[in-house]
Amino acid sequence: MNATTHAIFGVGALAGASLALGTEPPPLWAYPVAAVASWLPDVDNPRSKLGNGLSRKKNPLLNTLTRPVSWALRAASFGLFRTVGHRTLTHSLLGLLLFCLPVYLFLGFSPALQLALVCGVASHVVADALNRWGVPLLWPLRKNFRLLPGGIRSGGVAEFCVAALALGAFVYAAYLLHPALGGLVEEVVGTV
Ligand SMILES: [Zn+2]
Question: Which parts of the chain span the membrane according to its record (predicted)?
Fold first, then answer.
């Protein structure tokens, strides 16, 4: 799955989980957090969006601020790739547990941030389980699990259709969660 599909699944999972759990509607900043979190499991691939570090910014101050994060991401990527390899620990239940534990322990001050991070990362594993290779849910056991028989090809028409469906579901869920936002859109559309 490409980065855009993962981001759609991330924000969709956040909206869906908020509806299912009946929690407060997530604040708007939680959606970009869920999208970025949805790219985290692929940090084990040095060529992925986050594994490759953050792109250099035009603004020198911003560049200086983001560089430590960028190097940390690259170091984590290299370390994971060289030890456990791509699509292993970070795509398993064990990896999910190792991620959720510090989120639960240290970020209790913001349930919205916790939900966004967990939904983003978990949605990545679910999205990858739709493709041909599946995911090694029980890693270090080497058995891959797929949600669809045969799975769908990454980057193909099927992935585009799945992403479009997920986007539709997200827009509907967001409309239910944030009726004021829906009203705003209707107003903008009405004035065009
Ligand atoms: Zn992945």
Answer: 92-109, 156-177
